[in-house]
Q: What sequence folds into this?
């Protein structure tokens, strides 16, 4: 059983987009984005998660994005690489390969499409924890995968595997955050997987967020989390209320289409996504541009 010490997962972590240009990874744009994130004070970055379009990257591209993130970050903030798959063997391969590239830990989404039982989920994450040798954040996002990590399953996993140190919860329910906080030891972090849920999640025991919006506003997302954790709850509420329209409209279509559109409007990169994702639909583009103008973005 791995004996890696628990790694604190507190604060604002950015679920990074993967920039493309003419069908290839735009490494220059990715480097600029990472540099800006570090300068803005994020606590960590997550390459090749859902927002990074991991599902349509080749294996070589997936590992190159992780490698580049580690190189640019250069230990200045934490790097948790997305290494999940609906195949346990493939997830183990990605996890071990990411570890060799110098990441601080892994974000591992539940298997998608094949819909394992809770016993299957326990076996899947146990195999990964034993193979990883590094901290793991589990990732429950039933709207994407059709599967939810049961509260009892998560509790059993952290009791068995000390290197499972956190869960990214993206089920859209405050009840779930409360249930998880009651069931898990205090040293196991709970991270919001939805920007609009960050403030209420913090109020019931979450310790941070893995954010899409922080691709655009990393400083403000970090300030929201830090203010709340420091006891400045009114300040955190004011930031949430101000940016809630942006948090909402960045999910007007499937992530990362809206956030890539917004980043392209700022000149960071192209808005190119990979099929089967397509460009933002015209009516939604009008709505998104309106909220971006509201915030000077």
A:
């Amino acid at each position: 059983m791995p004996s890696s010490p628990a790694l604190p997962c507190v604060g604002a972590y950015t679920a990074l987009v993967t920039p493309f240009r003419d069908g290839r990874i735009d490494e220059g744009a990715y480097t600029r984005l990472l540099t800006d994130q570090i300068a803005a004070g994020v606590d960590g970055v997550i390459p090749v998660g859902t927002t990074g379009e991991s599902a349509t990257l080749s294996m070589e591209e997936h590992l190159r994005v992780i490698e580049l993130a580690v190189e640019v970050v250069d230990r200045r903030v934490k790097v948790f690489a997305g290494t999940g798959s609906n195949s346990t063997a493939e997830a183990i391969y990605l996890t071990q390969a990411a570890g060799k590239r110098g990441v601080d830990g892994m974000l591992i989404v539940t298997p998608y499409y094949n819909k394992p039982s809770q016993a299957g989920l326990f076996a899947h994450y146990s195999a990964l924890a034993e193979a990883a040798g590094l901290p793991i954040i589990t990732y429950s996002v039933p709207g994407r995968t059709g599967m939810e990590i049961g509260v009892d399953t998560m509790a059993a996993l952290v009791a068995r595997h000390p290197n499972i140190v956190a869960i990214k919860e993206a089920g859209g329910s405050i009840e779930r955050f409360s249930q998880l906080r009651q069931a898990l030891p205090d040293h196991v972090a709970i991270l919001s997987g939805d920007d609009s849920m960050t403030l209420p999640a913090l109020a019931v025991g979450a310790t941070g967020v893995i954010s899409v919006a922080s691709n655009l506003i990393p400083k403000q997302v970090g300030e929201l989390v830090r203010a709340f954790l420091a006891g400045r709850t009114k300040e955190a509420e004011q930031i949430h209320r101000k940016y809630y329209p942006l948090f909402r409209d960045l999910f007007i279509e499937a992530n990362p289409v809206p956030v890539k559109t917004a980043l392209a409007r700022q000149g960071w990169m192209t808005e190119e996504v990979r099929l089967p994702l397509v460009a933002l639909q015209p009516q939604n583009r009008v709505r998104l541009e309106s909220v971006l103008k509201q915030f000077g973005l």
